[in-house]
């Protein structure tokens, strides 16, 4: 992910709440280092035109009428593997956020996040950062433990955590902040970010291969 | 027979069909049988004269005792049948009544849950969106030069209030939504709150939560009260304890949920503090914070213990009894979860 730091970040927004979408678009357009490439009122609308905008970061509302933002990420991420999806939500519903991360998102922001903080987070995500809170880390650990027999033996290591990744995850689940992890594990901040990114990717791969396994099992059952 | 001394004649008698042995009657000329069952009988009497010589053949009187109508077999049989029928009928009726009662209870419960879900959704959709607009619109503009200081200050205040309101609504929506009536959701919520709140307060936060929690229902009342008590405790740590680190531990002990908040702050003397000059409402002095926390725990039949000593930090321990595990409470959720978990079993090797 070697992008020139002075490049402007292309942001696309998917939110059914028109006033909020307008304000977000205005913030992004007026901020230095950002430009807004698209606004969509629904996932259905975004599926048609968003891939053509080639955004670097997509701000995706979770609660949308029709297809949810989670479904939107699930469908758009394969078309835009280099694009970072950040979920927008009014409430921190851990289940929804976790489902979005499994679908391929790399973080979430509360809608009431102050403007400067929001722009800072977008920049951070664009530069390889991945925010993860302790309760989300706990859920991720649960997900990796629950299905310990890895469903994809033909590609070992693709969806199991390395010891170091596991260590970072467990520290996060125990409440350690990123800067504390840097101190404890004697690794750099970008390295922590890389680990978290990989954890998210593996979570995504894992949930996808589980969906495939579930499907093949289902069809096998059908065939008899 | 002897007529010489009839008062000296002695008798023995026996009721054939009822007894085997002879009954010595002495000089009495009476034989009394009570409660003779119906049947065929023969009454035998022998006598001895004043010389003690027995008249062995004696006399006998055969007779038949007819049964009363309630002693007939058909009456007793139909009586037994009727009793069995009546008993099983009562059992059946009672079981049905109980089942209907349980069904009604379940329906009521589901109606309440639907209503709670609707309220949560309405708050989320309607109030949440407008509040978001307020928080967005009330932020300091990108070019603050043209804005008078008083307006900017008011804007800040509006923004902070709206953010605070959004947080309170988040708490209400979480408590009201029946989807979160689980131990795991409670743990996740406490976990996130502690992490976010303490990192904002600049206090190191360590969390020790079990990874897997049993699927036990936790009512909205328990979740809400425990959360508010927890929040108040963390607020005390952040604003009074001068602690560098706080440790939050959640564990299950038998049927109790135990939540521990331990800080390494300055602590206090739990004995002296209330007795001392408590004109100013101190940290854990009566009337204020701790009383509130205690009241909240009492409402959910829990208890709160505080251990502290000056310079030794403070430990607050919440103990909340969990209701016994009752599977029929959420049959739909059970079915759904079993549907969801079955396909996740080791996948078939193709």
Please describe the structure with a list of short key phrases separated by commas or semicolons.
heterodimer, A: about 220 residues, alpha/beta, Rossmann fold, five-stranded parallel β-sheet, 5 strands, B: about 350 residues, alpha+beta, five-stranded mixed β-sheet, 9 strands
Written account of the structure:
The complex is a heterodimer of chains A (224) and B (350). By secondary structure, chain A is of the alpha/beta class. Chain A has helices at 18-30, 43-53, 69-76, 94-103, 115-126, 134-146, 163-173, 178-185, 189-223; strands spanning 9-14, 34-40, 57-61, 84-89, 107-110. The longest helix of chain A is centred in the last third of the chain and has 35 residues, at 189-223. Chain A is built from 9 helices and 5 strands. In chain B, helix 4 packs antiparallel against helix 6. Chain B is elongated. Chain B has helices at residues 73-137, 149-176, 183-201, 220-241, 272-275, 289-299, 331-341; strands at residues 10-16, 23-26, 39-48, 59-65, 204-208, 245-253, 256-263, 303-308, 314-321. Chain B contains 7 helices and 9 strands, in the order E-E-E-E-H-H-H-E-H-E-E-H-H-E-E-H. In chain B, 46% of the residues lie in helices and 18% in strands. Residues 274-287 and 327-350 of chain B have low confidence and may be disordered. Chain B has a 5-stranded mixed β-sheet with strand order 5-6-7-9-8, covered by helices on one side. Chain B has a 4-stranded antiparallel β-sheet with strand order 2-1-3-4, with no helix packed on it. Chain B is α+β, with helices and mostly antiparallel strands. In chain B, strand 8 and strand 9 form a beta hairpin. Chain B starts with 9 loop residues before the first strand and ends in a 9-residue tail after the last helix. The interface between A and B is large, with 45 and 49 residues.
């Amino acid at each position: 992910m070697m992008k020139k730091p002075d490049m402007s970040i292309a942001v696309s927004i998917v939110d059914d709440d028109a006033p909020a979408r307008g304000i977000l678009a205005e913030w992004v357009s007026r901020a230095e280092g950002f430009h807004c490439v698209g606004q969509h009122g629904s996932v259905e609308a975004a599926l048609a035109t968003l891939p053509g905008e080639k955004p670097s970061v997509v701000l995706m509302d979770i609660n949308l009428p029709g297809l949810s933002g989670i479904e939107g990420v699930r469908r758009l991420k394969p078309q835009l593997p280099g694009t970072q999806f950040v979920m927008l939500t009014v409430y921190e519903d851990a289940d929804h956020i976790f489902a979005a991360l499994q679908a391929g998102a790399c973080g979430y922001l509360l809608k009431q996040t102050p403007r400067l903080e929001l722009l800072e987070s977008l920049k951070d995500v664009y530069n390889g950062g991945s925010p993860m809170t302790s309760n989300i880390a706990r859920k991720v650990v649960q997900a990796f433990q629950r299905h310990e027999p890895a469903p994809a033996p033909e590609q070992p290591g693709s969806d199991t955590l390395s010891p170091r990744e596991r260590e970072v995850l467990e520290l996060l689940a125990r409440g350690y902040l990123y800067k504390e992890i840097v101190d404890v594990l004697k690794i750099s901040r970008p390295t922590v970010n890389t680990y978290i990114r990989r954890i998210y990717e593996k979570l995504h791969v894992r949930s996808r291969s589980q969906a495939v396994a579930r499907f093949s099992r289902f069809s096998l059952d059908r065939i008899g | 027979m002897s007529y010489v001394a009839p008062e000296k004649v002695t008798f023995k008698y026996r009721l054939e069909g009822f007894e085997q042995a002879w009954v010595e009657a002495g000089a009495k000329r009476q034989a009394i049988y009570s409660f003779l069952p119906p049947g065929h009988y023969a009454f035998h009497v022998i006598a001895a004269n004043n010389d003690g010589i027995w008249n062995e053949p004696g006399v006998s009187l055969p007779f038949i005792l007819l049964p009363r109508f309630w002693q007939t077999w058909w009456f007793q049989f139909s009586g037994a049948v009727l009793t069995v029928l009546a008993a099983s009928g009562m059992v059946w009726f009672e079981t049905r009544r109980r089942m209907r009662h349980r069904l009604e209870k379940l329906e009521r419960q589901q109606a309440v849950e639907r209503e709670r879900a609707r309220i949560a959704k309405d708050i989320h959709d309607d109030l949440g969106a407008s509040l978001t607009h307020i928080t967005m619109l009330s932020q300091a503009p990108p070019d603050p030069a043209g804005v008078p200081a008083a307006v900017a200050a008011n804007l800040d205040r509006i923004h902070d209030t709206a953010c605070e309101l959004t947080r309170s609504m988040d708490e209400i929506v979480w408590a009201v939504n029946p989807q979160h009536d689980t131990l795991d959701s409670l743990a996740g919520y406490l976990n996130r709150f502690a992490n976010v709140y303490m990192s904002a307060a600049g206090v190191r936060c360590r969390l020790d939560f079990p990874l897997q929690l049993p699927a036990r229902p936790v009512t909205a009342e328990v979740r809400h009260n425990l959360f508010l008590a927890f929040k108040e405790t963390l607020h005390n740590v952040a604003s009074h304890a001068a602690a560098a680190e706080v440790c939050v531990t959640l564990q299950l002990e038998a049927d109790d949920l135990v939540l521990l908040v331990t800080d390494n702050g300055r602590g206090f003397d739990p004995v002296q503090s209330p007795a001392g000059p408590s004109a100013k409402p101190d940290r854990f002095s009566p009337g204020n914070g701790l009383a509130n926390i205690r009241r909240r725990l009492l409402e959910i039949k829990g208890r709160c213990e505080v251990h502290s000593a000056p310079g030794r930090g403070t430990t607050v321990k919440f103990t909340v009894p969990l209701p016994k595990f009752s599977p029929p409470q959420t049959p739909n959720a059970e079915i759904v979860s079993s549907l969801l978990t079955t396909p996740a079993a080791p996948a078939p090797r193709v």
